[in-house]
Every structure is written in C-alpha cells, then in structure tokens.
Write a structure and sequence with these properties.
Layout (H helix, E strand, L loop, with lengths): L2 H12 L1 H38 L4 E6 L2 E2 L15 E2 L14 H16 L13 E2 H10 L3 E18 L3 E9 L3 H5 L3 E4 L4 H5 L4 E5 H7 L9 E4 L2 E9 L13 E5 H8 L3 E2 L1 E6 L5 H15 L10 E5 H5 L7 H9 L1 H52 L1 H9 L4 H37 L8 H27 L3 H6 L2
Parallel strand pairs: 6-11, 8-10
Antiparallel strand pairs: 1-13, 1-14, 2-3, 4-12, 5-6, 5-13, 7-10, 9-10
Amino acid sequence: MPINLQLALKSLVQNRLQALLTLSGMSIGVAMVVLVSGLGLGAQQQIESQIQSAGPTLITIKAGNFRPPGITTSGEQDSGGGEVSEGAVGGYELGFTDVLEYDAAVKDARARIQAPKRGTVRSPAWPLTMQEYQLLSQNTADVRLVAGSLAGNISLDETINETVRIARTVGIHADWPEIQGWELIAGRLFTKAEQTQSLPVLLVSDVVANRLWDLESAAGQTVKLRGTEFQVVGVIRGDTEEGSALIVPTLYMPLSLAQNLLGRDDLDVINLRTSSVGKTTEVANAIKASLRVLRQLPDDTLDDFRVETQSTAAMPSLGTDPRLARAVHSNIVEFEQEAWEEMALSLRQAGRTFTLLLSAAAAVSLLVGGIGVMNIMLVSVAARTREIGLRMAMGARVDDVMVQFLVEAVTLAALGGIIGLGLGAAGLAVAEYGLNWATAISPVMLLIAVVMAALTGMIFGYGPARRAANLDPVVALKAE
C-alpha cells in the first residue's frame, strides 16, 4: 500500500469523529446522485416504453375480406352474408381527388369477385398460412412482435363441474399476450421454449377460472383434451369479449398444439406490433403489398385478406361517410407519422427536463458534501501544523505534503462515495418496490458516481493541501 494512502487512513482513524461527519455529508450527496440518476433513467425508459406502446401500433391481419354489416364503403352484401371490405385494387393510391374514381373501381372489382370464378380470380376467404407468418416475422421492417392465432371448439375428455363439456381452444404464439397487452394476475405465461416443444400448457381468463375452479387455485389445474392432459399455468384478466366464456370457456395453448387438436395448419389471425412510432400505416401498406405478391393476386382483384390498423379499423364506423373515411385513410401515413413524432418529441423533452431538475438538486447535495470535505481538511491542517513543520524539517518536499493531504481528501470522498452507492441503491429499491416508481440502474452510472465523489474530494481538498504545503517549517514547528 502506498505510504501516502497509509498516512491518509491513519489520519482518518485518528480524527474519526470529524471523518464520520464528513463521510455522512459526502455519502448523502452521492446517494442523491445515484437516486436521482436512477429515477431519471427509469422515467426516461418508461416514457420511451409509453411512446412505443402509445397510439395505433397494432396491426391485425385476418383471412378473407369481409366486415360486419354497416361499416363498408358501399353497403353491398356478398354471397357469404358479410360485406366485402375495401382493399387494394390494381395500383390505386387513394387521395381526396380520386375518391369517386376509386368507388367505381371497387364496385367493378366486387362484381368480378362475386361472379362465377374464372381464371386466376381467388376466393376472398383464402386462409392465412404459416408461410405468410414466417414472411411477416422475418422480412418486415419496423415490426417489433409478430404472433398468430387459431381457434376452434373441441370436446373435453372429462366434464368439468358436471356442466362444461366443450371448450373453445385458441392456439397462440408466446408473444401473443404481450401484443394484446394481457394482464397476468396469477401464475405465469407459457414460454417460447414450451411453444417450440409443444408442451401441454394452458392460459385461462379470470372469468373462466372462477367458473371452472376458483381464481386462487386455477393455476396448476388440469384439463384433458384428446387423451392429453393439459396444465393451467397462468390466469389473465378477462376483457370485454369474455362474456362468451360463461357458455363455452376459452383455453389458450401453444399454437402447434391447437393445430394438431383441430387438424389444421393455417391461421385465423396474425397480429403485429410496430417498433417505431408513426410507422403503423406504412408497415400495414407494406404488408398488403407483400401478401399480394405472395398470393399472386392479379392487379384487378381485391385483397383476399384484411390488414387493419387501429386507426383504419376505428374510422369507417356507423355514421362516417365511407368516401371520407377512405380519403382520410389514404392520407393517414403522413398525419400519423408527424403527429406521433411530435408527441414523442414533447414527451422526451419533458423527461429530459425532469431529469435535469433532479440532477440540479443532486448537484447541490454533492456540493454540500464537497464543502464538508474542505472543512474537515482545513481543520486537519490547522490541528497538524506542528506535524507538517516536522515533516518538512526532516526533508519532506512541498509536493510530498500536498500529495499527502490530497490523498486524504480523495480517500475521504471515495469512502463516502462507496457508502453513498449503498444508500442510493437502497433508496431505489424502496422507490421501486415500495412506491411502484419506475427506476433503473447501471454499472456505468455507479462508476460515474464514485468518480464524481473522488473528483469532488480532489477539487475541494486542493485548497487545504496547498495551504499545508506552503507553511513555513520554522513557524510550523513553533505552533502549539
């Protein structure tokens, strides 16, 4: 151990009361830096998460090109009882100036689809395939998550509660709960490994759990389907569509298992979450183009699938002029991107301002700690004047004396910084687990806090060290 460090530690032990008081000030300053940094970083991460999840980031792809009655452009019924949804026809790009022309093209294309099939014209009920799912999950830009689902009714091997004989099985990919924003209230979600291995695990809603068992004991219960015993591993909070669960309970399982049970290899729905704010409609248009190429649809044929964003799904509702809805849809890419980018910029600026304000408060605390270091070092120089004179009389140089007191100041500040790290980490734990605040911590942040403490000790210890080094040895030896 270097001699200067030994002398510094010895001096701190000899003046332990003063050292402890100074350590407490520095520790509180560093703890405030760590706490504020953790809260600020956590707030920024939460803001980024909210930006990514805010707005219409969900894209839904469904087989067929039908909508419920009342929300189509022309009100014409197709042969299947549903109404043909608007879609890409030829190379049309909608704008306010060509709404009427597009109306005629849509009607003409609808007439051809409803007529007896000839040549390459496809049925508008063509299912979604796993090949299309792979295409979307691997080759689509700006997509964060992709998951498919498949549903069908199946008879239970053993009746539950002597009343439930049939269940609605829904096969989903492991990312489906995150895409849908499901809230887990008991147990756990099944993993990608369980999905890949086709392990017999189930998720149920709280509505189903309360009906078949009870909410507290649902996780761990078993259901037998086609000779295979499935275990319930988690319970999710039911949404507004769970009313049907009172009649036929819904069981969520890995997709491959549902495909085996139902004897199908296709999908009913593919859902995506975009990764960039304001990119949803742009990504949806790219998906439409990709699917049309993959399905080899002629230019004069309507889509035999539906690609819906939350914006486009909400717009053409009852009471909205369909031509206006289509015109708005055609211009929504620019509007969506600009609106969400402005919102994201405002939120990020608010987060930075919040962090700067807290950092200013933490800087004041660190400044107070530095003043404490300078105070204790001045007191130490005054109390050890005779010692300083004796060292210089025995040959110690000015630099030696200065380095000794600088090392004492830096050591004192660094020890306070290490203690402050522990206090700051404890404060972040209380904020996160006790107050449910968003926090974050990183090794780089902790290292910066200690370095800041050491630099503070060096800066505020320089004055007292310089004063000690400039003492006249003769005068110093005469000091009491």
